[in-house]
Structure prediction request, 111 residues.
Amino acid sequence: MIQWPEGDSKDGGQGQDVDGLQCGQMDETYHVHSHLSVFLNGEQLVVPSHVGIVEKTDGTECVYSLHTHDPGGRIHIEAPQPATFTLGQFFDIFGYPLDRTNVGGIVGLPV
Prediction:
């Protein structure tokens, strides 16, 4: 399987607000899961662990409402209240593009 590096890219969530989502303490008042699978030419790409979980220099961490804990493709949605969360927000936190011809930096996809 092809795998992106663990965590957010340097262009992704590094603790700053991303698409209106803050990085802070995990709040599981609203807690659901979604699953993401990405295939390229029939080969599955691994959605990495620790997307949306930022380790700070002081040893603490902040967590976005959209995040992963392991490389299984499960996106955790943990927020103080129900809201609309999108795949675009996840990819913005992840720090990779998402559009019709570029999924996670894989370009030239058929439209």
Remarks:
- The two ends are 23 Å apart (CA to CA).
- The chain has a mean pLDDT of 91.
- The chain has one helix and eleven strands.
